[in-house]
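Quick note —
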Amino acid sequence: MIIIGVILIALAGLLLFLRKRTQDKLLEIRYVKTSSVSEVLELQQSIAAEVGPGGFKQQTELKGTAQCETPLKAELSEEPCVYYSMSVEERYEERYTERDSQGNTQQRTRTGSSVVASNTQATRFQIDDGTGVLDVDSDGASIDARTVMDKYEPYSGGGGSLNIGSFTLNFGGTIGGARRVLGYHYRESIIAPGQQLYVLGEVDDSSGTPVMKRPSEKGKPFILSIKSEEEITRSSERSINFMLYGAIACAVGGFVLILFGRKTTKTRNHKEEARKLF
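Predicted structure written out below.
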Protein backbone atom coordinates (compact mmCIF):
# COMPACT_ATOMS: atom_id res chain seq x y z
CA MET A 1 0.00 0.00 0.00
CA ILE A 2 2.86 2.39 0.82
CA ILE A 3 4.56 1.50 -2.45
CA ILE A 4 1.38 2.31 -4.39
CA GLY A 5 1.17 5.63 -2.56
CA VAL A 6 4.76 6.50 -3.51
CA ILE A 7 4.01 5.61 -7.14
CA LEU A 8 0.95 7.88 -7.14
CA ILE A 9 2.96 10.79 -5.72
CA ALA A 10 5.65 10.22 -8.37
CA LEU A 11 2.91 10.22 -11.02
CA ALA A 12 1.62 13.51 -9.62
CA GLY A 13 5.11 14.98 -10.02
CA LEU A 14 5.28 13.76 -13.61
CA LEU A 15 1.91 15.30 -14.42
CA LEU A 16 3.01 18.64 -12.97
CA PHE A 17 6.21 18.50 -15.04
CA LEU A 18 4.25 17.78 -18.23
CA ARG A 19 1.78 20.52 -17.30
CA LYS A 20 4.63 23.04 -17.01
CA ARG A 21 5.93 22.04 -20.44
CA THR A 22 2.46 22.45 -21.95
CA GLN A 23 2.09 25.84 -20.25
CA ASP A 24 5.43 26.96 -21.70
CA LYS A 25 4.33 25.85 -25.17
CA LEU A 26 1.03 27.71 -24.80
CA LEU A 27 2.85 30.87 -23.69
CA GLU A 28 5.05 30.70 -26.80
CA ILE A 29 2.01 30.28 -29.04
CA ARG A 30 0.37 33.33 -27.44
CA TYR A 31 3.54 35.42 -27.25
CA VAL A 32 4.81 34.94 -30.81
CA LYS A 33 2.60 36.86 -33.21
CA THR A 34 1.83 35.56 -36.68
CA SER A 35 4.16 36.96 -39.34
CA SER A 36 3.89 36.86 -43.11
CA VAL A 37 6.63 35.13 -45.08
CA SER A 38 7.43 38.40 -46.85
CA GLU A 39 7.98 40.17 -43.51
CA VAL A 40 10.34 37.43 -42.33
CA LEU A 41 12.32 37.45 -45.58
CA GLU A 42 12.59 41.24 -45.60
CA LEU A 43 13.88 41.25 -42.01
CA GLN A 44 16.35 38.45 -42.77
CA GLN A 45 17.66 40.26 -45.85
CA SER A 46 18.09 43.54 -43.98
CA ILE A 47 20.06 41.83 -41.18
CA ALA A 48 22.14 39.86 -43.72
CA ALA A 49 22.99 43.15 -45.45
CA GLU A 50 24.27 44.59 -42.18
CA VAL A 51 26.09 41.67 -40.53
CA GLY A 52 26.31 39.13 -43.34
CA PRO A 53 24.46 35.85 -43.86
CA GLY A 54 24.22 33.42 -40.97
CA GLY A 55 23.36 35.96 -38.28
CA PHE A 56 19.59 35.68 -38.40
CA LYS A 57 17.67 33.58 -35.87
CA GLN A 58 14.13 34.40 -34.89
CA GLN A 59 11.25 32.52 -33.29
CA THR A 60 8.48 32.79 -35.87
CA GLU A 61 4.86 31.81 -36.33
CA LEU A 62 3.54 31.25 -39.86
CA LYS A 63 0.26 30.11 -41.38
CA GLY A 64 0.09 28.88 -44.96
CA THR A 65 -0.04 25.86 -47.24
CA ALA A 66 2.57 23.14 -47.74
CA GLN A 67 4.20 23.11 -51.17
CA CYS A 68 6.66 20.59 -52.62
CA GLU A 69 7.86 19.93 -56.19
CA THR A 70 8.96 16.34 -55.47
CA PRO A 71 6.69 14.97 -52.72
CA LEU A 72 7.01 11.58 -51.10
CA LYS A 73 4.52 8.76 -51.63
CA ALA A 74 2.86 7.49 -48.46
CA GLU A 75 3.59 3.81 -47.90
CA LEU A 76 0.05 2.51 -47.27
CA SER A 77 -2.28 4.99 -49.00
CA GLU A 78 0.27 5.92 -51.70
CA GLU A 79 -0.91 9.53 -51.48
CA PRO A 80 1.59 12.32 -52.28
CA CYS A 81 2.88 13.97 -49.12
CA VAL A 82 5.71 15.89 -47.49
CA TYR A 83 5.44 13.77 -44.34
CA TYR A 84 3.92 10.43 -43.41
CA SER A 85 3.83 8.14 -40.41
CA MET A 86 2.51 4.59 -40.71
CA SER A 87 2.13 1.51 -38.54
CA VAL A 88 0.80 -2.01 -38.98
CA GLU A 89 -0.45 -3.78 -35.86
CA GLU A 90 -0.97 -7.52 -35.81
CA ARG A 91 -3.79 -8.85 -33.65
CA TYR A 92 -3.56 -12.47 -32.64
CA GLU A 93 -4.95 -15.22 -30.48
CA GLU A 94 -2.66 -17.68 -28.74
CA ARG A 95 -2.89 -20.72 -26.51
CA TYR A 96 -0.93 -20.88 -23.27
CA THR A 97 -0.64 -23.15 -20.28
CA GLU A 98 -1.60 -21.89 -16.82
CA ARG A 99 -0.61 -23.69 -13.61
CA ASP A 100 -2.59 -23.17 -10.39
CA SER A 101 -1.35 -23.30 -6.79
CA GLN A 102 -2.01 -27.06 -6.63
CA GLY A 103 0.18 -27.70 -9.65
CA ASN A 104 -2.70 -28.42 -12.01
CA THR A 105 -2.33 -27.18 -15.57
CA GLN A 106 -4.99 -25.83 -17.87
CA GLN A 107 -4.94 -24.68 -21.49
CA ARG A 108 -6.22 -21.14 -21.96
CA THR A 109 -6.53 -18.67 -24.82
CA ARG A 110 -5.68 -14.98 -24.82
CA THR A 111 -5.65 -12.23 -27.40
CA GLY A 112 -2.92 -9.68 -27.94
CA SER A 113 -1.38 -7.32 -30.44
CA SER A 114 2.05 -6.18 -31.54
CA VAL A 115 3.34 -3.60 -34.00
CA VAL A 116 4.95 -5.53 -36.83
CA ALA A 117 5.92 -2.51 -38.94
CA SER A 118 6.23 1.25 -38.53
CA ASN A 119 7.87 3.99 -40.53
CA THR A 120 8.08 7.77 -40.58
CA GLN A 121 9.45 9.79 -43.48
CA ALA A 122 9.64 13.49 -44.26
CA THR A 123 11.08 15.70 -46.96
CA ARG A 124 11.90 19.39 -46.97
CA PHE A 125 9.07 21.52 -48.25
CA GLN A 126 7.96 25.14 -48.43
CA ILE A 127 5.20 27.02 -46.66
CA ASP A 128 3.32 29.49 -48.86
CA ASP A 129 1.10 32.14 -47.28
CA GLY A 130 0.42 34.14 -50.43
CA THR A 131 3.14 36.71 -49.72
CA GLY A 132 6.08 34.37 -50.33
CA VAL A 133 7.50 30.93 -49.71
CA LEU A 134 9.88 29.71 -47.01
CA ASP A 135 11.70 26.38 -46.68
CA VAL A 136 10.68 24.16 -43.77
CA ASP A 137 12.88 21.43 -42.27
CA SER A 138 10.49 19.37 -40.14
CA ASP A 139 13.19 17.34 -38.35
CA GLY A 140 12.48 17.38 -34.61
CA ALA A 141 9.02 18.95 -34.93
CA SER A 142 5.96 18.02 -32.92
CA ILE A 143 3.77 17.02 -35.87
CA ASP A 144 -0.01 16.77 -36.04
CA ALA A 145 -0.92 15.26 -39.41
CA ARG A 146 -4.12 14.23 -41.20
CA THR A 147 -5.27 10.63 -40.77
CA VAL A 148 -5.76 8.98 -44.16
CA MET A 149 -5.96 5.35 -43.03
CA ASP A 150 -7.24 3.73 -39.86
CA LYS A 151 -8.74 0.36 -40.65
CA TYR A 152 -8.75 -3.19 -39.42
CA GLU A 153 -8.84 -6.14 -41.80
CA PRO A 154 -9.38 -9.73 -40.63
CA TYR A 155 -6.78 -12.20 -41.82
CA SER A 156 -8.16 -15.02 -43.89
CA GLY A 157 -4.91 -16.88 -44.50
CA GLY A 158 -3.65 -18.07 -47.85
CA GLY A 159 -0.14 -16.83 -48.51
CA GLY A 160 3.14 -15.98 -46.91
CA SER A 161 2.97 -12.22 -47.43
CA LEU A 162 0.63 -9.27 -47.05
CA ASN A 163 0.53 -6.34 -49.49
CA ILE A 164 -1.12 -2.96 -49.16
CA GLY A 165 0.02 0.06 -51.15
CA SER A 166 3.78 -0.20 -51.51
CA PHE A 167 4.05 -2.03 -48.19
CA THR A 168 4.80 -5.75 -48.05
CA LEU A 169 4.88 -7.91 -44.94
CA ASN A 170 6.43 -11.37 -45.05
CA PHE A 171 4.86 -13.56 -42.38
CA GLY A 172 7.78 -15.91 -41.81
CA GLY A 173 7.05 -18.01 -38.73
CA THR A 174 4.40 -15.75 -37.23
CA ILE A 175 1.46 -17.86 -38.38
CA GLY A 176 0.90 -21.36 -37.05
CA GLY A 177 1.74 -23.19 -33.86
CA ALA A 178 0.16 -21.83 -30.70
CA ARG A 179 -0.55 -18.41 -32.25
CA ARG A 180 -3.31 -17.63 -34.75
CA VAL A 181 -3.39 -14.28 -36.52
CA LEU A 182 -6.80 -12.60 -36.35
CA GLY A 183 -6.11 -9.58 -38.52
CA TYR A 184 -4.14 -6.39 -39.10
CA HIS A 185 -4.80 -2.78 -38.14
CA TYR A 186 -3.39 -0.23 -40.57
CA ARG A 187 -2.79 3.38 -39.53
CA GLU A 188 -1.29 6.22 -41.53
CA SER A 189 -1.25 9.99 -41.25
CA ILE A 190 0.19 12.46 -43.74
CA ILE A 191 0.78 16.10 -44.56
CA ALA A 192 -0.09 16.52 -48.22
CA PRO A 193 0.91 19.32 -50.60
CA GLY A 194 -1.73 22.05 -50.40
CA GLN A 195 -2.50 21.27 -46.74
CA GLN A 196 -3.15 24.34 -44.59
CA LEU A 197 -0.57 24.45 -41.78
CA TYR A 198 0.27 26.22 -38.56
CA VAL A 199 4.03 26.37 -37.97
CA LEU A 200 5.89 27.68 -34.93
CA GLY A 201 9.67 27.40 -34.93
CA GLU A 202 12.87 29.28 -35.60
CA VAL A 203 13.85 30.84 -38.91
CA ASP A 204 17.60 30.42 -39.34
CA ASP A 205 19.81 31.45 -42.28
CA SER A 206 23.03 29.76 -41.13
CA SER A 207 22.89 27.46 -44.19
CA GLY A 208 22.91 30.46 -46.53
CA THR A 209 19.14 30.59 -47.06
CA PRO A 210 16.43 31.14 -44.46
CA VAL A 211 14.80 27.93 -43.21
CA MET A 212 12.10 27.28 -40.62
CA LYS A 213 13.54 24.61 -38.32
CA ARG A 214 13.87 23.31 -34.78
CA PRO A 215 14.87 26.16 -32.42
CA SER A 216 18.49 26.20 -31.28
CA GLU A 217 17.43 27.18 -27.74
CA LYS A 218 16.52 24.10 -25.72
CA GLY A 219 12.90 23.95 -24.60
CA LYS A 220 11.53 26.20 -27.33
CA PRO A 221 8.62 24.54 -29.18
CA PHE A 222 8.71 23.45 -32.80
CA ILE A 223 5.13 22.80 -33.91
CA LEU A 224 3.90 21.67 -37.32
CA SER A 225 0.15 21.14 -37.28
CA ILE A 226 -2.88 20.84 -39.53
CA LYS A 227 -4.89 22.36 -36.66
CA SER A 228 -5.49 26.08 -36.39
CA GLU A 229 -3.84 28.19 -33.70
CA GLU A 230 -7.20 28.42 -31.92
CA GLU A 231 -7.65 24.63 -31.91
CA ILE A 232 -4.13 24.10 -30.55
CA THR A 233 -4.72 26.69 -27.84
CA ARG A 234 -8.01 25.10 -26.71
CA SER A 235 -6.47 21.63 -26.69
CA SER A 236 -3.49 22.86 -24.63
CA GLU A 237 -5.77 24.58 -22.12
CA ARG A 238 -7.79 21.38 -21.65
CA SER A 239 -4.59 19.36 -21.17
CA ILE A 240 -3.28 21.84 -18.59
CA ASN A 241 -6.50 21.59 -16.54
CA PHE A 242 -6.67 17.80 -16.85
CA MET A 243 -3.05 17.38 -15.70
CA LEU A 244 -3.59 19.72 -12.73
CA TYR A 245 -6.68 17.81 -11.53
CA GLY A 246 -4.92 14.49 -12.18
CA ALA A 247 -1.85 15.59 -10.21
CA ILE A 248 -3.99 16.71 -7.25
CA ALA A 249 -5.93 13.43 -7.24
CA CYS A 250 -2.75 11.34 -7.44
CA ALA A 251 -1.03 13.35 -4.70
CA VAL A 252 -3.98 13.16 -2.31
CA GLY A 253 -4.50 9.47 -3.00
CA GLY A 254 -0.79 8.79 -2.56
CA PHE A 255 -0.56 10.55 0.80
CA VAL A 256 -3.70 8.81 2.05
CA LEU A 257 -2.32 5.39 1.10
CA ILE A 258 1.04 6.13 2.70
CA LEU A 259 -0.52 7.31 5.97
CA PHE A 260 -2.95 4.39 6.05
CA GLY A 261 -0.14 1.97 5.24
CA ARG A 262 2.05 3.32 8.02
CA LYS A 263 -0.84 3.14 10.46
CA THR A 264 -1.55 -0.45 9.45
CA THR A 265 2.14 -1.35 9.81
CA LYS A 266 2.31 0.18 13.30
CA THR A 267 -0.84 -1.66 14.38
CA ARG A 268 0.56 -4.93 13.08
CA ASN A 269 3.87 -4.34 14.89
CA HIS A 270 2.08 -3.57 18.16
CA LYS A 271 0.06 -6.77 17.88
CA GLU A 272 3.20 -8.79 17.25
CA GLU A 273 4.95 -7.21 20.24
CA ALA A 274 1.92 -7.90 22.45
CA ARG A 275 1.81 -11.51 21.26
CA LYS A 276 5.47 -11.96 22.16
CA LEU A 277 4.87 -10.61 25.70
CA PHE A 278 2.10 -13.12 26.39
